[in-house]
Design brief:
- By secondary structure, this protein is α/β, with parallel strands linked by helices.
- The chain has 2 domains: 206 residues, Rossmann fold (3-Layer(aba) Sandwich), CATH 3.40.50; 167 residues, Rossmann fold (3-Layer(aba) Sandwich).
- Helix content is 48%, strand content 14%.
- Strands 2-1-3-4-5-6 form a 6-stranded parallel sheet, covered by helices on one side. Strands 9-8-7-10-11-12 form a 6-stranded parallel sheet, with helices on both faces.
- Strand 7, helix 10 and strand 8 form a beta-alpha-beta unit.
- Helix 1 packs parallel to helix 6 and helix 13 packs across helix 15.
Length: 392
């Protein structure tokens, strides 16, 4: 009975996929017609200086950090801009957790919205696009909307803070060819995109330092080292799989508590773990109560292209950081504002060192805070954003 139900479900999903692909094709014809007609449709007198196209949904971390935090700066500078939102965080999560039919209908809705929004780019002097113009769709090869945007707007910047090409190399290569400028968040991305484009610039991720409570007391409470980690349940699982065994080994001689902020409880035999759900009202206080922040990922193309938000959180608080060297700020230097750990021996030695040396904790913590003040403040990041364009 279950096998029959499974077969029926697979056939149902396949039918929805065919339906979805048919409408993607039909919408694509619509976009191709607009591309052909673009010389007539393009506006000479522009209503806006800047159009913004987020890849992520409103309410997500990416949306907040790459767009929303800068609205006040754009308004302060009297820049006429328009934000092209796709959906809310709730709509996004509902679509990706639901049935295949809901997922495909959601993607088609996103495509319809983005066709209309891309057509409106003709009213903009310049545009800033995070990744690409048809977000969430994994199977596209031809950047039709990006081609339309380049026909209707003279200057379009495409932004990358991840190794997105591993998911769809053909699409991203073709998108890069169309771009006026490519902006990136770290050196690994800079080197990669520089192979395909002559105008690649840094756009460091900015954080709102007003939200953080800078650490002032670097003493340990009751000789216990509180290590902090924040991330999704899958990230927590990967982190524990990477370094959990080392932390267990250290905890036999050093008193350790792991503070985890995640939506699900974290368990690892031999570790004292205190889990908290994310709540902005308590998150920054929890950060401040910790003694060090940890970050651990395996080396891969995907991890090298990341920009770890948790590193920004640790630095914003002034926590000393223990981390693998992949996917972190390009302004972190071993022994100055971070301790990089790339082996079991490094993790064991560095955690023990952080535990025993208050002066080192204070030095690393204060230097990490200074690093984000200098290179990851919203002011600094916004100035880099403006430099992405010929004029703004």
């Amino acid at each position: 009975m279950k096998k029959n139900q499974l077969k029926i479900q697979k056939a149902y999903n396949k039918l929805w996929y065919v339906y979805f692909k048919l409408f993607v094709f039909l919408y694509g014809l619509w976009v191709r017609l607009l591309i052909v007609a673009s010389p007539i449709l393009k506006k000479k007198n522009k209503k806006h200086q800047l159009h913004l196209f987020p890849y992520s949904q409103k309410g997500s971390d990416g949306y907040t950090r790459r767009f929303q935090e800068f609205f006040v700066f754009l308004e302060r500078d009297h820049i006429r801009y328009k934000m092209h939102d796709i959906c809310s965080d709730q709509e996004y999560k509902k679509a990706f957790r639901g049935k295949k039919s809901s997922y495909y209908l959601f993607l088609l809705k996103v495509y319809r919205i983005r066709i209309k929004q891309t057509f409106q780019i003709r009213h903009a002097e310049k545009a800033f696009v995070h990744r690409n113009l048809f977000p969430f769709y994994y199977d596209q090869k031809n950047p039709l909307l990006e081609k339309l945007a380049s026909k209707l707007c003279n200057e379009v910047v495409y932004d990358y803070w991840d190794s997105v090409w591993i998911h769809n190399e053909e699409l991203n290569r073709r998108t890069v060819e169309i771009a006026s400028t490519i902006s990136v968040a770290n050196k690994f991305l800079f080197d990669y995109f520089s192979k395909f484009h002559s105008n690649v610039k840094y756009f460091n991720i900015g954080i709102n330092l007003n939200k953080y409570i800078p650490k002032s007391d670097y003493n340990l409470c009751e000789n216990e080292l509180k290590l902090f980690y924040t991330g999704s349940p899958s990230n927590v699982k990967h982190m524990l799989g990477q370094i959990g065994q080392y932390l267990v080994k250290i905890s036999k001689t050093v008193k350790i508590k792991l503070i985890v902020v995640s939506s699900e409880p974290a368990i690892f035999p031999g570790l004292d773990i205190k889990q908290h759900a994310f709540n902005e009202n308590t998150f920054f206080k929890l950060l401040n109560s910790a003694d060090a922040g940890i970050y651990a990922l395996k080396d891969s193309i995907a991890t090298r292209g990341k920009m770890a938000m948790k590193i920004m959180d640790y630095s914003g608080t002034g926590l000393p950081i223990l981390a693998t060297k992949y996917g972190v700020s390009p302004h972190l230097y071993h022994g100055e504002n971070v301790l990089f750990c790339d082996s079991d021996e490094n993790w064991i030695n560095n955690v023990s060192l952080i535990y025993s040396d208050k002066k080192l904790r204070e030095k690393l913590g204060k230097k990490s805070r200074l690093m984000v003040e200098n290179y990851h403040s919203l002011d600094y990041s916004y100035n880099e954003f403006k430099l992405l364009f010929s004029s703004l």
